[in-house]
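Q: Could you predict the 3D structure of Phage head morphogenesis domain-containing protein?
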Amino acid sequence: MARRRASNEELAGLVQGEQTDAVRRLEDRVAARVLGDLESRFAVLSQRSITAWVAAFGSVQAESGDTAALRRILSTIRGAVRRLLGPLGPRAQRELDQALTDAVLLGARQHAAFVEEATGRATRPVSGRPSRGLRRRAAAIGAAIADRRDRALAILRPSRARRWSDVQAGIGAAQSALPATRAHIATTVNEAVNEASLTAIDHQGAQKLWIAERDACVNCAAYSGMVVAADADFPAGLSWDPNQRGRGKALAAPPKHPHCRCRVTAWEEGWAPEGVPSFPDSLRREARRSIARGWSLPTESGAARIRAARELLRTGAGLPKSVEEFAALAVRAGRFTDRTVPTGP
Ligand SMILES: [Zn+2]
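A: Sure. Here are the predicted structure tokens for Phage head morphogenesis domain-containing protein:
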């Protein structure tokens, strides 16, 4: 059944908006099941430990004089770290492995929806199973958590932890397993979603198109709109920031880094209607605009965004004069005052 082909803006909105949000919700559900109330239990552990330390040694500045008391406190904390992180690894492995099937299904459905919008023709999702490589990367979450637990336990030994700051570092090392788990889940779910796209692309015999997030980093923005053959990799080391060029390795598909929510989809030259810029063209233009506007996450280096904007202007942005002037102003000032992507129409 033939339908109207979606506009470039609608296609971008579908993938970068609705579909990315759905993937993020899946990540959140898995993370909630895996992490439960561990965050607050770690807060309680910190609070109780500091209370015990002050009771035993007088203040957080005081060194531990009494070895027996120190041993007691550290042994209690080590026990708590084992209790909190011990079951986390197996639980994370189990939940993430189960989530892979959901993520691959979601990716397959989303990819079919994209092709349907891009072509105006009904498309059935190509179902696949999570690959062995994907299952292996999901299972590695257990070892990553155990590693952080062991590092924490090594710090929390009487021979190493003589001051409160050491104890704090030990608890911090254990607690760092939580964001690491969150990141591992996010990366693996996004790998699964993109793996489903790759399966569908192969099936279709199409080319591969990289679609970056609207607030993608300077590296991912350099890939947005790039089209390569289905069996080729996206080249290594692209970046709008000259200082970050040449890093990383060639990739079959995103994610390029932890918390990267870029997507790969099928693309065929014939899908672009005549007389308007193709969808890949419009993605490349959008990426240049986001570099000129400084649209990015607060976690990304501001200096990198300025270097990227300077490079964009140097090589010719091909954007409206007002956008280029905005970028030039930011480069002269050495910063973008507001880096949030505007929402709404
Ligand atoms: Zn990315």
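Q: Anything worth pointing out?
A: The chain has a mean pLDDT of 95.
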